[in-house]
Amino acid sequence: MQHKTLIKVRGYHLDIYQHVNNARYLEFLEEARWGYLEDSGDIEWFAAHGLAWVIVNININYKVAATMGQTLEVYTQFSKVAGKSAVVSQEVRIAGTDAVAADAQVTFVCLNQKTGKAVTIDGELRSRLEQHLAN
């Protein structure tokens, strides 16, 4: 399942070169992941099961500069579910164009909130995550 989040580029997102600062893309990607979790119902499910997503790695590629006033479309989808981690693929596109501003592979683990330890992704948790895998 692919999810789309729209983000309007504001002046405070820009750096001295008048394009979106590289660190802001991490915020845009996080905003899109939260939107995905809210819309899928996963926030409630994870909370009910005492689990939390914890990002352990982000690989991001910056491709085209985004500037003030543009609308960004952030596409989010699961691409891999492994034994202890999963990967979410994200792409930031400039709306109304074919331009990709950035793309990222975000690896996370599911943390047991009581123990503070990563859990094995199996059973109901695996089923929950695998239902989101891109076809």
From TrEMBL:
Gene3D superfamilies to which the protein is assigned, alphabetical: Hotdog Thioesterase
Coiled-coil intervals, chain numbering: none
InterPro entries on file: 4-hydroxybenzoyl-CoA_TE, HotDog_dom_sf, YbgC/YbaW
Keyword Hydrolase annotated: yes
SUPFAM superfamilies recorded: Thioesterase/thiol ester dehydrase-isomerase
Pfam families in the cross-refs: 4HBT_2
Keywords in alphabetical order: Hydrolase
Top-level taxon in the UniProt lineage: Bacteria
Family indicated by similarity: Belongs to the 4-hydroxybenzoyl-CoA thioesterase family.
Protein name in UniProt: Thioesterase
Organism field: Alishewanella longhuensis
